[in-house]
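tool_call: predict_structure(chain=1)
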Amino acid sequence: MTLRPAGENTGILFVRTDYKRNYSVRALAQNVSDTTLSTSLAENGVQVSTVEHLLSALWGLGIDNAIVELSAEEVPIMDGSAAPFVYLISTVGIVEQDAVKEFIRIKREVRVKQGDAEAVLKPFAGFKAGYTFVADHPVYNRYPKRAQLDFSKISYVDEVSRARSFGLVNELEHAQAINKCLGSSLENAVGIDDFSILNHEGLRYQDEFVKHKVLDAIGDLALLGKPILGEFDGYKSGHALNNKLARALLRCEDAWEMTPFVRDRRRDTRPMVQPEAVPA
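tool_result:
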């Protein structure tokens, strides 16, 4: 994978360089083609998969425009979190462009459900993300299952980006049978057996499981094409329901409006985190 600068109003564009012609796929909610254990995009018959961690990192750094070149279908999994992307991007730096940054401001509540799972967007002055992780398991039951994060008060880089994918070892065989998680290991996920966490270093956050769900949701909502001014809350929601929420919002034109972000030069407050906040 290679990340390249892009001009104003390009958005996030994936380019498959392994084709004779470099086919591109726009990072938009309407291009989501598969949500089985990850989020995949497709446009004009060309697919890219596992995009959510990279998109989450780009959101966390406030990056609106970038070209992502891929030499194969799948975005590299790295360590199963967004932190390696954040670190590498911050190492080379970010260019501030002249175009006015625009946000999707939520004007009224939009809610979607699937079984007992649900996801909602509602008005909020800033961006807040909440998630409730529901799983009855001896390991999961030892750790927090609810997180609510106000990103005007906490850092995405410090508090969310390092949360890794996770899963039960006894579910891996089924995932691989459907051609998913083929390269899964303790180097790119938190592995859990019947009673313990298998990674020798343990968890990076006490609430790493639920924070990874927030990380995923941010990546999925980044497919709206613009950052949100509002509050997200998920209860057992996954990639499919997150995408259903994004599409529902776009259909409900009275529920949102585009609004510019005008920076107060006296108080250089940005809704996104700064690259220098990246931990060593």
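agent: Residues 98 and 116 are 45 Å apart (CA to CA). Proceeding to next step.
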